[in-house]
């Protein structure tokens, strides 16, 4: 079945459910072919699954209520009219495709990721693999680009500049979203979240993933080959943009996986583990994955906004209102060290949850 992402996302709803009073949440019906049942599959979908992808127009006045609702219900939403210049997006995509089209020996000159650089198939140090190659870059664009000089020559400086321009724009958008979320939560300190990304010591990273076409992406049992395995993002917020090739899926509370139609003009935002902790579980860190595409390359660019290594991560006191904390306090360095020892699909926050007294 052919899916038109413009139709899915931008057709206004005629009947909005009572629990979603949001003019910017268009009605989206996901067909059965785009729903992957959890194992074991206990039912056969004969009817379309109705799923509401929160769509936030950042040019509209005061979308904070919609943003908070999206973070509470899904930990995931799409933004339009985001202010990131299309010229910067297009040039960075062009530069990235230029790099990934190089012969493997040339790309490997930019690796291995230690932690930054080029990697292929191997995701992290603990055995996770996927149908993906990637560049992992520091957001401090003054450093870490020496590996590219031997590949790009004089063009390496232009690559660095394009990445820098893109990151400035995307970071600005991420901070604006975080400040609107703080307003929506009635946090007196509006920059309670965004200041962690703005800090000079912010441990943020930028990742460019390339998923080559995989003609044999459908295995014999009918399940799709995984491009990037299921996981949550450990940081505060993730800002994702991809080309118009499908592959991204998110997991709903019932365990079903929903394919998200691509939209190369928009951004998708993920709540990260750290923001889930800071809101004491009110916001949900979304579990997601990427499946391989049989015929087209998929390119995604993700800004992971993280706090300084020494930052203490704990529920904000102003949000507790007499509630017990669900998590023990930890530094970002502690959590980072912990998730580097884990597998992608692990519940990494489980180690930091407070165990209720029996």
TrEMBL record:
Regarding protein family, the annotation reads: Belongs to the iron/ascorbate-dependent oxidoreductase family. GA2OX subfamily.
Task: Tell me the pathway.
Answer: Plant hormone biosynthesis; gibberellin biosynthesis; Hormone biosynthesis
Q: Please tell me which top-level EC class this enzyme sits in.
A: oxidoreductase
Q: Where is the signal peptide?
A: none
InterPro entries recorded: DIOX_N (IPR026992), IPNS-like_FE2OG_OXY (IPR044861), IPNS-like_sf (IPR027443), Iron_ascorbate_oxido_reductase (IPR050231), Oxoglu/Fe-dep_dioxygenase_dom (IPR005123)
What biological process terms from GO does the record include? coumarin biosynthetic process; response to molecule of fungal origin
Q: Which reaction is the catalytic activity of this chain?
A: gibberellin A1 + 2-oxoglutarate + O2 = gibberellin A8 + succinate + CO2
* Domain (Fe2OG dioxygenase) ranges: 201-307
From the Swiss-Prot or TrEMBL record, give the protein name. gibberellin 2beta-dioxygenase
Organism annotation: Buddleja alternifolia
SUPFAM superfamilies per the record? Clavaminate synthase-like
Q: Which UniProt keywords apply?
A: Dioxygenase, Iron, Metal-binding, Oxidoreductase
The cross-references to PANTHER family, in alphabetical order and at most eight, read: 2-OXOGLUTARATE (2OG) AND FE(II)-DEPENDENT OXYGENASE SUPERFAMILY PROTEIN-RELATED (PTHR47990)
Purpose of the protein: Catalyzes the 2-beta-hydroxylation of several biologically active gibberellins, leading to the homeostatic regulation of their endogenous level. Catabolism of gibberellins (GAs) plays a central role in plant development. Converts GA9/GA20 to GA51/GA29 and GA4/GA1 to GA34/GA8.
**Looking at the record's lineage, which domain of life comes first?**
Eukaryota
One function term, GO molecular function aspect: gibberellin 2-beta-dioxygenase activity
E.C. numbers: 1.14.11.13
